[in-house]
Structure formats: structure tokens, C-alpha cells
Amino acid sequence: MMKVIVIVLVATVICVVAFAVVDRVSSDIVDPSTNVNVSANYANSITVSIEGEVKHEGTYTVPLSSVLETLIEASGGITSNADESAFEVSYALKDGASYYIAPLYDNSNACAVTPIDKININSADKAGLMGLSSIGETVASSIVSYRSTNGTFHAIEELMNVSGIGLATFQKVKNYVKLRG
């Protein structure tokens, strides 16, 4: 009887250890359809988020020197409604950052055939920038000043580096700006 109890205890310990290992390994497996954190065991990696016009929004772990194209590929690619003038695939990702792929057409209108009218934040003058909702004269001047000091914007998220633009303002304008064209 004692042998049976010892064998059962040993088998139980082996099963617990095996399940712990399997659980740890399976937490690193990607299932984009669940929209859950995607992780891989990279020695040098960063964690970034993506939302908007991608097939699987979520948080992803990618190699340290990744660019936006890597993140887009990890998310399953862009949708047919992605505005390719509003992002640069060669943009270097920053750890902990969140990236947005803006729509080409208005998402609230399923029959939209006319693209959203957008302002190019790299070439618009102060008056043009003031055409954006929530962008007044002071913030428009700050955008122009930021461009002259720091150069062109390479991601629409960089707007939040401009004095007077926080997350709330960015959320209001993110679908109405582009980087080129």
C-alpha cells in the first residue's frame, strides 16, 4: 500500500511540474483572434500596442530594433480601410508606446466612398492646422514651431510631443491628420 501512495505522489509532482512548464510555454504562443497580449521570448525585446485599422488590435512583444512594419505584420496586417499616408512603416518603435493606424474612410458610415478630408501635419501652415477640431491658434503655432525645431513628424502619435496636445486632443484629431500627400 505504501508503494502505491509513493507512486501516486511522485506522479502528481511530475504532473504539476509538467503542467507548469506547458502553461509557461503556452503563454508565449500567439493567437491574434483572441486579441490578447502576444508574447515571444526575445532576449532583447519591447512591448508595444497597436489599434485602429489592423486585423488584430492588441499588445505585442517584438524584437528591440523593430519598426512599425514589424508590429503591423504581428497584428495580422492592415485592413483595406487603412490610410497609408498616415503612418510610416519604417518608423522605429519605442518600448511601451501605442500606435494607431488611421482609417481612410469614416468608420461610422459603412457606405462611405469619399475619403476623410485630412490635414498634412508636416506641410500645413498655421491656418490649415486650425481647421482641425480642437486645434486653436496657440496649438497650431506650437505645431509649426515644433516642426521647425524637431523636423517633420514620422508618426501621428508624435503630435502628443507638442505643447498643448495631450491624449484627449490627439484622440479627437487622429483620424483627420496625415504625414504625407
Question: Would you mind describing this structure in some detail?
Answer:
The model is unreliable at 21-40 (pLDDT under 50). A 3-stranded mixed beta sheet has the order 2-1-3, covered by helices on one side. The chain has a two-stranded parallel sheet with strand order 4-5. It has 5 helices and 5 strands, in the order αββαββαααβ. It has helices at residues 2-26, 68-74, 126-129, 137-150, 167-173, and strands at 45-52, 58-63, 98-101, 119-120, 177-178. The protein is 31% helix and 12% strand. It has 3 domains: 1-29; 37-101, Ubiquitin-like (UB roll) (Roll); 119-178, Photosystem II 12 kDa extrinsic protein (DNA polymerase, domain 1, Orthogonal Bundle). It is α/β, with parallel strands linked by helices. It is elongated.
Please describe the topology of this protein.
Elements: H1 2-26, E1 45-52, E2 58-63, H2 68-74, E3 98-101, E4 119-120, H3 126-129, H4 137-150, H5 167-173, E5 177-178
Parallel strand pairs: 1-3, 4-5
Antiparallel strand pairs: 1-2
Descriptive terms for the model:
two-stranded parallel ribbon, Ubiquitin-like (UB roll), 181 residues, DNA polymerase, domain 1, elongated, 3 domains, alpha/beta, 12% strand, 5 helices, single chain, three-stranded mixed beta sheet
Largest sheet: 3 strands, mixed
CATH architecture of the largest domain: Roll
Q: How much helical structure, as a percent, in the residues?
A: 25-40%
Average pLDDT across residues?
A: 85
Low-confidence regions: 21-40
Total helical elements: 5
**Could you tell me the radius of gyration in angstroms?**
23 Å
Physical arrangement of strands within the biggest beta sheet? 2-1-3
State which percent range the strand residues make up.
5-15%
